[in-house]
């Protein structure tokens, strides 16, 4: 184990691995370095030296962000009831209808809307402030009418959430773990 500007680097030699991979875990402020076990130490160190700018950029990008953790969530059925009720309220008010609600743990999305108007929400969305939760619900409901992120989609979204751009920027302050 070594470190880079306050972040640990945890080494993971693997027998079957054929490539090198460096990943940053925001929640623990550590880099995980996966590599084939036959690679020389000199080559590993050169690889890490070549990645220093990227490592610095990743650390700076994630500095000061709010980390949402699954351990902080209430029971799943409470989350489902909360979102079902709120989604029904927003759907009635906006005239945007959905077919079904699902909850999932997702690594990189707040939510999604399928071709047949099933809305899937990341369970961690529950931990966001109310205005951002509602923004995500409106966003997914707008996808029931327009399935892409075209200009028309954003016009529809801004009709329901005039501060759409501000909400999008605010969401970038949160990290999913």
Which outline best applies? elongated
Specify Rg, calculated over alpha carbons: 20 Å
In helices, the fraction of residues equals 40-55%
CATH topology of the largest domain, anyone?
Zincin-like
Q: What is the CATH H-level superfamily of the largest domain?
A: Metalloproteases ("zincins"), catalytic domain
Side-by-side strand order of the widest sheet: 1-2-4-3
Annotation, overall tally of beta strands: 9
Distance between the termini: 23 Å
Instruction: Outline the biggest β-sheet.
Output: 4 strands, mixed
Strand % is: 15-25%
Instruction: Detail the poorly predicted runs.
Output: none
CATH class of the largest domain: Alpha Beta
Discrete helix count:
6
Q: From the coordinates shown, what is the CATH architecture of the largest domain? A: 2-Layer Sandwich
What series of H and E elements makes up the topology? EEEEHHEHEEEHHHE
Secondary structure class reads alpha/beta
What can you see in these coordinates?
The chain has 2 domains: 2-63, no CATH class; 70-176, Metalloproteases ("zincins"), catalytic domain (Zincin-like). A hairpin with a 4-residue loop joins strand 7 (111-113) and strand 8 (118-122). The protein has helices spanning 41-50, 52-62, 76-94, 130-142, 151-160, 164-171, and strands at 2-4, 7-14, 21-25, 30-36, 66-68, 100-104, 111-113, 118-122, 174-176. The chain has a 4-stranded mixed β-sheet, with helices on one face. A 3-stranded mixed β-sheet has the order 6-8-7, covered by helices on one side. The protein contains 6 helices and 9 strands; from the N terminus they run E-E-E-E-H-H-E-H-E-E-E-H-H-H-E. The protein has 177 residues and is an alpha/beta fold.
């Amino acid at each position: 184990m070594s470190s880079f500007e306050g972040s640990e680097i945890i080494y993971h030699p693997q027998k079957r691995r054929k490539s090198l991979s460096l990943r940053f875990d925001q929640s623990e402020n550590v880099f995980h370095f996966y590599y084939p076990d036959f690679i020389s130490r000199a080559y590993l160190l050169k690889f890490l030296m070549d990645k220093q700018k990227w490592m610095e950029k990743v650390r700076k990008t994630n500095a000061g962000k709010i980390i949402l953790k699954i351990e902080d969530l209430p029971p799943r059925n409470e989350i489902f009831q909360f979102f079902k009720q709120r989604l029904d309220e927003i759907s009635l008010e906006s005239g945007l209808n959905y077919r079904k609600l699902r909850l999932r743990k997702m690594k990189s999305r707040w939510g999604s809307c399928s071709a047949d108007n099933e809305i899937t929400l990341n369970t961690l969305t529950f931990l966001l402030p109310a205005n951002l939760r509602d923004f995500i619900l409106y966003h997914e409901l707008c996808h029931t009418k327009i399935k892409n992120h075209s200009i028309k989609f954003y016009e529809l979204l801004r009709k329901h959430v005039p501060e759409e751009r501000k909400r999008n920027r605010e969401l970038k302050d949160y990290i999913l773990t």
